[in-house]
Amino acid sequence: MTTVDRNDVEAGVGLPEDADQWTAKIRGFLMRNLPPGRLIPDRQPSYMASWIYIFGALTMGALAMVILSGGLLSLEGPTWWHTSTVGLFVNSLHLWSVELFFFFMVVHLWGKFFMAAWRGNRALTWMTGVITFMASIGAGLTGYLSQTNFDSQWISTQAKDGINAVGIGAFFNVLNFGQMLMWHIMILPLAVVAITILHVLLVRTRGIVPPIELEPADPATAATGGEG
Amino acid sequence: MARTRTYNPDRDVNPWTGPYRSYDLAKEIVVTFLAVAVIAVVLAVVFGSPDEKSVTLKSWSTADQVDFAATAITELDGSSATAQYGPPYNDVADVSQKIGPISVESALGVHIPVNPPQDFVLGPLSTVTGNPQLTKALATYRAASPAQQQRWTAAYETAVKKATVSDGKLVVPPGAYGPVAVLIGNLTQLATSGGLDASLINHAGFYSTDYTKSLLFVADGGYFSSLGDAHHLSGEQWGMMNETGSYPGQPWLWLYTVWYQVPPFNGDNTFGANADAYVWILMMILTAGFLLVPFIPGVRSIPRWSRVYKIIWRDHYRAQR
Predict the structure, then answer these.
(1) pLDDT 10s digits, B135-180
(2) How does pLDDT run across A116-166, given as a tens digit for each residue?
(3) B315: domain range?
(4) How many domains does chain B have?
(5) Residue-wise over A44-70: b if at least 16 C-beta within 10 A, else e?
(6) Beta-bridge mates of residue A165
(7) pTM of this prediction?
(8) Is B45 in CB contact (< 8 Å) with chain A?
(9) Phi and psi of B77, rounded to 5°?
(10) Is residue A15 a part of any domain in this protein?
(11) Is B112 touching A (CB cutoff 8 A)?
């Protein structure tokens, strides 16, 4: 058995005999792709100088508010807010956090579109953003279906026809309050948060996309992607 | 041998070799969260949120007994929207929406069984005890031939449109309805007492969270749709993306609801008759396109053609010059 120094262990200096370990391989992958300076950067390329960049952070701020207000709503159950002034305020906070979340996300999305932010091996970053948007739409719809009021009744009875028409309604019954509530407070928030984390890690791994340049700076090194 | 490819400005980047500036990520996250929290609190305090009470079978039958009875008879005779819906609720042939010759809805069959005559009318009435007239009416109706049942219900369906309410009770002009008048009259009373609401919940034991049957029954009535119209929520009013009151609702659904407002999906043609299926397929295609923008020639060039990026990175391009 090879003995190793404690500092080397904590610094993640792997021994050749451990190279086949799953743990060692995962750590190696993370250290290569997400070194501390990339994961938590304190410097960014000088071209990152526009108000449009703030909308990604605003979207995540709104998502945090959505989760926080939704968590408060769930403390007392799904019908609490109908009979409590505090509950009505928390519901209002949840509603407006959701509206802000979508507003910021759509501006972020258009900003990234006009920056062609998929360039330089960043297509997966774009795609995870789109999937987050779609999962958020599902979370928003199931939220409206879980309100236990007239809006829930109306939206569910309207939504059923489209969902039934393509067969999804046979398994995803928008008229079943219990099923919709579980999707709204468990499955879809988990999906949105998990894909958002992946999206952010991809942004940190690849770096923010450089400006559009019509010609390669150096024909020999062009088409490699990456921040620098 | 390393594979090389031609530089494409819509796909590739020049590796950044320029300067880096100070950037406090943690501070940005905290400040933006606090800013969003303040905005959300202000909006919540100033505008609140809508909370229109739900419609129950009791509130519907109390507010409009005639509409309730007129809907109930269509549930009994199997002519209501729910009874004629087909899969996933019941086995009605050739009513499901299709894309060309294909109907996914039909192919999957009945997954959420709903039998309106039994589930909405005869079943709940069977639970009523101590009412010999009703018990006899149920037995008579069940023993009659389908043709006889149809004659009774057809006559009642015509007459109930001229019904009135007297002393809180439904009064239908006399006619040859057999036991049907007793059935619908008792169902209306059961509804106004609140008993029908409890009967229609899907029970899997003591607890329940499934209101499928109640919602389908309520949605079949004219009362419910008139409330939807009054709250500007109908399909031609951009439907489910709205919510009651002057609130934004779900504006992110605009691209889904817009198709229902325009030809050919709002027309009297095969697209209009199968609008839900066509709009959903269209949205699936558009979503796939949205997801795959980075790989679609032409679409991925729009940012370069639009030159909006020149504004976003104006400082960078100015510095380059």
Answers:
(1) 999 999 999 999 999 999 999 999 999 999 988 888 999 999 999 9
(2) 999 999 999 999 999 999 999 999 999 999 999 999 999 999 999 999 999
(3) 262-321
(4) 2
(5) bbebbeeebbbbbbbbbbbbbbbbbbb
(6) none
(7) 0.92
(8) yes
(9) -90, 0
(10) no
(11) yes
